[in-house]
Amino acid sequence: MSNPVYDFNEIIPIDSIGVKERVSRLNSRSIKKESKVAGLKLALSMIDHTTLEGKDSKGKVEQLCSKAKMPYSPMPDLPSVAAVCVYPSMIAIAKNALRGSSVKVASVATSFPSGMSKLSIKLEETRYAVEEGADEIDMVISRGEFLKGNFSYVFDEIAAVKEACGEAHLKVILETGELETLENVRKASDLAMHAGADFIKTSTGKVTPAATQPVTLVMLEAIRDFHSKTGRMIGMKPAGGIRKAKEALQYLVLVKETLGADWLTADYFRFGASSLTNDILLQIVKQKSGVYQSLNYFSND
Amino acid sequence: MSEKTGTNITKAANGSPKPSSPNSDLKNEFAAFLNYAPAPESSEHIEIKDRYQHFIDGDFTEPVKNRYFKSINPATEAVLSEFAEGTSEDVDAAVKAARKAYDKQWSVLSGKERGKYIFRIARMIQERSRELAITETMDGGKPIRESRDVDVPLAAAYFFYYAGWADKLKYAFPGKTPVPVGVCGQIIPWNFPLLMLSWKIAPALAAGNTVVLKPAETTPLTALKFAEICRDAGLPKGVVNIVTGAGQTGAALVDHPDVDKIAFTGSTEVGKIIQKSLAGTSKKYSLELGGKGPNIVYDDAPVDQAVEGVINAIFFNQGHVCCAGSRLLVQEGIAEKLIEKLKARMDSLIVGDPLDKNTDIGAINSKMQFEKIEKYIEIGKNEGAEFYQSSSELPSNGFFCKPTIFTGVSQSNRIVQEEIFGPVLTIQTFRTPQEAIEKANNTPYGLASGVWTDKGSKIFETGKSVRSGVMWSNTYNKFDPTSPFGGYKESGIGREGGLHGLYPYVNLGH
Fold this sequence. Notes:
The structure holds two protein chains of two kinds. Chain A is of the alpha/beta class. Chain A has helices spanning 16-27, 33-45, 58-69, 91-97, 119-132, 143-148, 151-165, 176-179, 182-195, 213-230, 245-259, 276-289; strands spanning 47-50, 83-86, 104-108, 136-140, 169-173, 199-201, 235-237, 271-273. Chain A has one domain (16-297): Alpha-Beta Barrel (TIM Barrel). Chain A has twelve helices and eight strands. Chain A has an eight-stranded parallel sheet with strand order 7-6-5-4-3-2-1-8. Chain B is α/β, with parallel strands linked by helices. In chain B, the strands form five sheets. Chain B has a seven-stranded mixed sheet, with helices on both faces. Chain B has a six-stranded mixed sheet with strand order 9-8-7-10-11-19, sandwiched between helices. In chain B, α4 packs across α5 (144-165). The termini of chain B are far apart. At the A-B interface, α1, α2, α7, α10 and α11 of A face α1 and α11 of B.
């Protein structure tokens, strides 16, 4: 296959009403019985259990890791979540707490969440995170440069961070809430994928709106088109604002019907979320026992 | 630009090793999500009687000749119910009842009072929406998603809309004195049984007319349930009469000397017969007939949304839509890309049990229609067009047809010229807007069309030039009670919906 050439000036028209209509059509899918249980467990296994606060402590991160490994101890057969996502200074603690488990450590880097720093500092931070043991790096793009039309800057920055990642897996956060239009989302997605992203991710969670289904659909379509052009499978991570199990299932339907079953694994799809885990657990227990449990029975971490 | 190239699709395709997937051993457990578990709408609580009579003069009435037809569920081929075959005697009784109700009751009632009844009917359609949707799906084969989300809510909306006009008619026709026409004979098709009923009955009643309605012979049940609603709403006897039957019953209604107006929705072929038999009479008429809608996609269109729109335009209600976008005209530069995406999208359509909430495409309405579609698919193949059908699995019973497209067709092909009324799309390409418009207009029909482009001026330019009653831009198959609908050329005469939809039901004095 020849090298795919990316045209920085290409704008792919997107009709936002059509996108919303498609999303609402997909939301009307009725997921019942065994499909629902399978979907909930699948969603659980795709979570990047996240804490990204200035007040994060060793204790909090350790609790988070414990939950990540075994989300609900009365049901030890449930899958663990995919990863925990923390700030670079917490990587070593998380790594230690997760030793022996399959849960990955993801870290934000590149002056998260704003990305307002110079490239050498971002690369330094990335290398630091990798040295600390991060399996996955979540970087942010320079939205200011993107909106200015300085696309080659954004491209080169992603490519440089990818190089600094080495063996680690790179997720590129577009911060779609700041890009505003779906055309921008599509363009940023294409740009990030061509520059070497392993995953594209909607949001930092620090800007409203964070992940939305229309934005996710547009990114999934970008991934689909990139795959049909290059044969490469890129992952997708909506992050921020996804709190309910029902929404998680809706996202999975979006993935299944846009990209197909190959993407329905934690290798290619993640949820960046913190409170989603408990709602999924609540629903799983409800499917098994027939009644909703009090939230007091689920640990808050 | 440096670029790493993936040669095969593996976990490490991005050039760097990916962390191995956690939980990979659990993969099999997730398989149940990949095919949705059945989610059928329960029909247990729906009462469908073994036998339905005509609804004449406020009561269910035995047919004079005591003959009955069977109505089957096209998804299972099982008999659902029996309904009366209307003869000229039955039609006569219904017209007499309608005349009496018109003279004594309905035409002398104030607009405000008429409006109250119509509002009540609208509310009762909403109250019984679930029942009506399930009945519609069982009787006609359309997916429950559509009858639940489109047919029934829209039917209620048309009644609400026209209920509002009942006491405002003089504002609808400023400076004129609108008077009702009298007794209206209305014949509706099988593709949107309840919705077409509402398009006909709501404006007729609002304007002060009484009606005799004949539903199609494959889908009479929702009309008969509507008759129950009229009875339960306390609508004066004889204002709405439902006579069931096939073509002969319809002909008896058209030919009845005491009918003042005929409203017909159906095929162009039957429309022509009706027009002939009405020639020389004083009866008013409106006809809403066939179509072969061109759906024009320019190369600057939002392609993913256009693909979705093309799917919606032709596969909505199994393509049993007179305004379906059954001719896709796509600009050459994006044709290949669009067709590739279209095929992939077709493969994700779920064809099957219409009662399942996840079904996208239900059953073909009847055996006759099924055979007609099959015949056209054969014709298309023989005409040398390239043929593609989705990979969907079909149920073993019932009348089901896979979504089908024909590429490489030419304007002279029968599948391009003639209305198929099924999930069959023909795809032609064009190079310039002028060529697109020429091809779009090169048809005896002129009901509906679509245009897809990112450029507003192109939408208006195309809309001005394509001769069709409706043009949707960057969408398709959108309906609203306030919007008039109807055709040019052989697609019909008169408009339904909106203010325009009142015209056929009034005579304007000075």
